[in-house]
């Protein structure tokens, strides 16, 4: 007699959490790579002649293909069609390929006249060849990392829906933030020992390990699918999953509440991830610190977020209040950016900077912990991959344009400074205008958060309700 299966790996907490750790470890190394150059802006300006606008353009290039080639939209459709495990491998490969190209662009070999050097320096000469190659690599890496983000989100919903969903998402984000902390500590240290190439080289190697981790996850996911299929065949699984159709995407784009969440997401994240790229330079300038000191100080930002995000996830699973948390998170962000922008130099002490960084970390827990687990409440599971990819796509437009805007604002509000730095003078940029721009994004996000709460009250999506079904 064939034994009937009544449970799946999803019902074993050990299997569930192991799947989460496998997915999150790849995101840990991916987030390390995203910010591997972030603490090195000053070093890159002297070694590779990357001015703030060049640095901003390289930072923004991560999102270029996602936005303009609509890669993220395709990534979501591909994910909904080929499933989590295959999409995870595709994204892992893309990250490794892109990172390797970026590594080549900043390498001593390339910059000493290696393959492609003459070509990449023969056009648009105001933008260094090293930065052009770095942009190409980072844009390919960006396709991989964003596809990985969407895939991991859908993967977590697959394992944790109706269980500890927000806690699991919070933990995944916490592990990713730990990657940001690690890179802000490690990257300047490695760069001091072996130059920028060593930092990016180690980052690339770690991504290879991340790809292997996705490979291990593949087998967990396969087993779960086989068990779920067997349950369906035996008639134990009531909710037969409907097939995804492209026309289903219309329901996402026409949902007002979904678009408000996407708007809030792009505004909030535009004042966080791009800020991470400029924060070290801002702290160096405002507190007269070295790169290494400023980078260490800023590393407390992801640490705060890392500790709080899973706790808030647990709270949302059990008590709800996601919409209210979005409002509070946006408000705290405005306060912190205004402190960076407007505190007079004599009052901007180490303690003030540290407090603002930690409070910003709290804001960076409140919004992600409540935003991402709210998405499954707004759309059908069969379009969930596409829904995450559309939100990420809209978010990527902001993440791509904001570093370019900030780099430009920094250069324009500090006329002559780039030239003085290039001439070896010990002058600093003034970051007031860029920080006011970040605060402005926060104000717009807060207004949308108020609107979202009102919409939820009217339409009853249950954003304020707990996730755990008792
Ligand atoms: C979960 C969320 N992830 C994102 O927003 C992704 N689009 C990744 C962005 C990474 C920065 N380039 C998060 O990390 O809060």
Could you describe the 3D structure shown?
- The protein has a single domain, classed as MFS general substrate transporter like domains (Growth Hormone, Chain: A).
- It has 20 helices and no strands.
- The protein has helices spanning 13-34, 41-47, 52-61, 64-68, 71-82, 84-106, 108-111, 117-120, 129-160, 165-233, 249-253, 256-270, 273-287, 291-298, 300-319, 322-342, 350-371, 384-412, 417-422, 432-459.
- The two termini are 35 Å apart.
- 55% of the residues are buried.
- The mean pLDDT is 91.
- Residues 34, 62, 146, 149, 173, 176, 269, 273, 368, 372, 392, 395, 399 line the site of the ligand C[C@H](NC(=O)[C@@H](N)CCCCN)C(=O)O.
Give a quick account of the main beta sheet: strands, pairing sense, barrel closure.
Answer: none
| Total discrete domains | 1
CATH superfamily: MFS general substrate transporter like domains
CATH architecture label: Up-down Bundle
Low-pLDDT runs of 5+ residues are: none
Which ligands does the model contain, each kind named once? the ligand C[C@H](NC(=O)[C@@H](N)CCCCN)C(=O)O
Strand content: under 5%
Helix content: over 70%
H/E element order: HHHHHHHHHHHHHHHHHHHH
Structural class: mainly alpha
Radius of gyration: 22 Å
**Overall spatial form:** globular
Mean pLDDT: 91
- What is the total tally of β strands? 0
- CATH top level assignment: Mainly Alpha
Our measurement of the CA-to-CA distance between the termini, rounded to an integer number of angstroms, reads 35 Å
Q: What is the number of helical segments per DSSP (H or I, 4+ residues)? A: 20
């Amino acid at each position: 007699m064939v034994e009937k299966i009544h449970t799946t790996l999803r019902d074993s907490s050990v299997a569930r959490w192991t799947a989460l750790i496998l997915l999150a470890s790849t995101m840990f190394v991916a987030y390390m790579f995203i910010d591997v150059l972030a603490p090195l802006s000053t070093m890159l300006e002297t070694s590779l002649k990357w001015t703030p606008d060049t640095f901003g353009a390289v930072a923004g290039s991560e999102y270029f293909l996602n936005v303009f080639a609509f890669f993220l939209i395709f990534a979501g459709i591909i994910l909904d069609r080929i499933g989590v495990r295959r999409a995870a491998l595709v994204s892992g490969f893309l990250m490794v390929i892109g990172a390797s190209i970026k590594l080549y662009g900043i390498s001593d070999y390339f910059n000493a006249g290696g393959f492609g050097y003459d070509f990449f320096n023969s056009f648009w000469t105001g933008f260094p060849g090293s930065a052009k190659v770095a942009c190409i690599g980072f844009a390919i890496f960006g396709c991989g990392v964003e596809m990985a983000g969407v895939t991991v989100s859908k993967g977590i919903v697959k394992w944790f829906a109706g269980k500890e969903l927000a806690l699991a998402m919070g933990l995944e984000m916490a592990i990713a933030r730990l990657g940001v902390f690690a890179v802000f500590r490690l990257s300047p240290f490695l760069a001091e020992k072996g130059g920028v190439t060593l930092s990016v080289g180690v980052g690339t190697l770690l991504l290879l390990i991340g790809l292997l981790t996705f490979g291990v996850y593949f087998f967990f996911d396969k087993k779960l699918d086989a068990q779920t299929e067997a349950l369906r065949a035996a008639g134990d699984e009531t909710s037969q999953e409907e097939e995804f159709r492209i026309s289903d995407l219309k329901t996402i784009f026409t949902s007002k509440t979904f678009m408000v969440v996407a708007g809030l997401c792009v505004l909030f994240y535009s004042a966080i991830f791009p800020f991470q790229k400029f924060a070290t330079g801002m702290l160096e300038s405002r507190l007269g610190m070295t790169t290494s000191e400023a980078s260490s100080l800023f590393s407390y930002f992801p640490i705060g977020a890392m500790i709080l995000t899973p706790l808030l996830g647990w709270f949302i699973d059990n008590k709800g209040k996601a919409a209210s948390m979005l409002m509070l998170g946006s408000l705290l962000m405005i306060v912190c950016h205004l402190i960076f922008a407007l505190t007079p130099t004599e009052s901007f002490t180490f303690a003030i900077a540290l407090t603002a960084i930690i409070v910003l970390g709290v804001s960076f827990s409140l919004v992600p912990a409540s935003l991402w687990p709210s998405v499954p409440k707004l759309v059908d599971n069969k379009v969930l991959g596409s829904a995450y990819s559309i939100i990420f796509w809209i978010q990527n437009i902001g993440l791509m344009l904001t570093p370019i805007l900030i780099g430009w604002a920094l250069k324009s509000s500090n006329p002559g400074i780039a030239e003085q730095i290039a001439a070896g003078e010990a002058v600093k940029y003034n970051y007031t205008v860029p920080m006011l721009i970040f605060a402005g994004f926060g104000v717009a996000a807060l207004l949308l958060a108020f609107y979202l709460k009102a919409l939820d009250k009217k339409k009853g999506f249950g954003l304020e309700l707990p996730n755990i079904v008792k």
